[in-house]
Amino acid sequence: MKKVIWWLRRDLRLHDNPALRAAVDRAGEVIPVFIWAPDEDAEWGPGGAQHWWLHQSLKALDQSLRRLDSRLVLRKGGSLTELRSLLQETRATGVFWNRLYEPAAIKRDTEIREALRADGHQAESFNAGLLYEPWTQATLKGDPYRVFTPFWKSCLKGPEPAAPEAAPQAMPTVSSWPDGIELDALDLMPRRDWYRGLGEAWTPGEAAGLARLEQFLDDGLAHYDEKRDYPAVDGVSRLSPYLHFGELSPRTAWQAASARRADSGCERGGEAFVRELGWREFAHHVLFHFPQTPTRPMDQRFEVFPWRDDPGGWLGAWQRGHTGIPIVDAGMRQLWQTGWMHNRVRMIVASFLVKNLRLDWRHGARWFWDTLVDADLASNTMGWQWSAGSGADAAPYFRIFNPVLQGEKFDPDGGYVRAYVPEVRKLPPRFVHKPWAMPAAEQAKLGFEIGVAYPEPLVDLKTSREEALAAFKALPGR
Ligand SMILES: Cc1cc2nc3c(=O)[nH]c(=O)nc-3n(C[C@H](O)[C@H](O)[C@H](O)COP(=O)(O)OP(=O)(O)OC[C@H]3O[C@@H](n4cnc5c(N)ncnc54)[C@H](O)[C@@H]3O)c2cc1C
User: Fold this and answer.
1) Residue 259, Cβ neighbours under 10 Å: how many?
2) Catalytic residue among 97, 318, 384, 386
3) Counting CB atoms within 10 angstroms of each CB, which of 145, 269, 342, 402 has the fewest?
4) Is CATH 3.40.50.720 the right assignment for the domain spanning 129-162+206-289?
5) Residue 454 DSSP symbol
């Protein structure tokens, strides 16, 4: 009877998994395999927070498979080498997997497909990760899109994404299992215990992702459009890591949200949420067509932008949340403690790094890469290039966020900064976003001293804004 390998990567789920579905439909035996091969993308292998997530996610998936009398075989090494030896050991005839869209993954998977076929094996890939694969959309001239709105219109004009498929009720039995290694042998768990907060904030895995989707649809979707910019409020879905690791199918999220849009009161929230799923699609479209953008500005004029050499500890102060700007520090501490940061605050901290501190956006992208549980090469690159003003559909460089005004607008009673920056907790609302402006007498009354209890801002917001504008105006072509 035909036997195939289901090669899992970032599709760590049983529901709506086309490679699994094809394997179950076409083979009498299916061997689920995950190969840990971080060296195959030395530049953008998973960061620290993602190691933690992956460990939990693989464990959860193995438990789900065992409930169906199957299991996850873990291997470590080169993907092609491991697949070849698995094919030999098990006498399987083919390998099925779901596609990834990062440049290094595309190159590797193409080589593997060709090598396996040359060996006489079946090698087939499927789409589990996107609503619209990057090559399916093009402008009238046949070019890739660089602006979100026409991209998204083009997606919505075409056929709807395929309906998601249910998880199989049963897995075909396997007559003899190949050897695998223990999860701990992948050595994914961080050595230092900084990840404790991640465990308090998150439950990785397919079941938790589906439950979070249901909870968000019930409690959050109706008001998503109104609440999504307020970081103190539970107004967003927090589905990003589940989508990144493929524990939640984007088609499942899309279809469930689209269905709820018909409910009274959910129309606007539903539309706004589906549009955000569209930004995820756009990010993958841009990365696919502009594969250099994780490290090079998309707008080439920015190649000569005069990024500042760190004058001494600015980057470290930003990373640790000690810039003296409460909303920035709250965001950076939320990131460190929970592996995630609210989107509005991501934009604020990024703008502060690249515009007020004028430090290269690539420093910020790297730090996010290591600390976010949802770190995603497409979305992170787009977010950072957008913030720097050099990317697709980027914020115009002259629109520089004022973090105090942003804080006052989107965290009006200071609940968010108070949660993450205890140093300013007792300050009255009118100073919680700008403690340095509090008169000395008032500071004394509260037993608070700026520069002692909490740092002075690293830079003056007005001067640094003007310097950034001057640097931008000096770019060629301005
Ligand atoms: C500097 C910067 C870096 C970022 N890095 C990442 C990253 O590494 N990984 C990541 O998934 N997102 C990134 N984003 C986008 C966005 O901040 C997160 O997707 C969002 O905060 C995740 O929270 P959520 O699931 O509650 O989002 P929701 O608001 O509930 O949105 C639902 C889903 O839509 C997608 N989405 C929403 N906004 C965006 C966006 N702007 N770009 C792409 N997809 C989006 C995400 O998959 C998200 O889970 C970044 C944004 C910025 C400004």
Assistant:
1) 12
2) 384
3) 402
4) no
5) B
